[in-house]
Design brief:
300 residues; alpha+beta; 8 helices; 19% helix; 34% strand
Amino acid sequence: MGLTLLDGWSKMIGMKIYQMRQGCVLERGGRFYTLAGWDWDGMFRQDRPMEALRAAAGNSTVIEKLDEGQLLAPIVSQEVWAAGVTYHRSRDARMEEARQAGGDDFYARVYEADRPELFMKATPHRVVGHGQQVRIRKDSQWNVPEPELTLAVNSSGKIIGYTIGNDMSSRDIEGENPLYLPQAKVYDQSCALGPGILLSEQGLAKTTAIRIEILRDGKKAFEGATDLSRLKRTPEELVAYLFRDNSFPNGCFLMTGTGVVPDSSFTLVHGDEIRISIDGIGTLVNTVTGGRRSSAAADR
């Protein structure tokens, strides 16, 4: 797959912002601008952050390229929430894992219901960025990544941008009982976001593709793809439900669910490399820590 941060730029009209160890960097028209003193949380309190960014770029320094080794997760004070059972494939997978516990019917009902499934996924300190490690729970034996388009939402409930999300999930824990969902989903390093945020005043096309590739010992262990046309609920609908009787003073992120789920014979192992790409945004790459090692790694 091997997309770079710049791939897909021509497919979207917008700009990208990255959080770096030395500060924020704006990508606009193929050029990179350092943003001294940029207020990340303040960006999530604005209705039109692109205007402020254009003005900030005019007084910034142009740099030659982005140093991916300095990237941080694109988050400061934002909560990360997630929506489930938004794709037909995720409904089937959740029904499969919950069947033995008698909870399979719950997921079929959610898929057809007016109200979506929404849950808290991560607080900022549980989130990792591009090039960092996601983690497998010590008490889980069946773990998968979930590649998801993730919405950047401002404090008034307006979608201001898009990023890539990896919703790490312990399927055996959730399958044991649907009430164990928080333990299956929420733990340290259970969420990855990045590499940056695509800020755009336009929505993404329904043909926007989401791809995942998992490498194990340098070889492809799994790959899959879907696109936004298979998303049952619109991003705006999901955000509207999230903001019912709920407030986010510094904005939030909302993962929109997954349409790519490995079958029951697959589980992540220590050392796997997960590569998630979304058209126009780029590629989020993370390695897996925890869990058992692959047979090749164990032999070394």
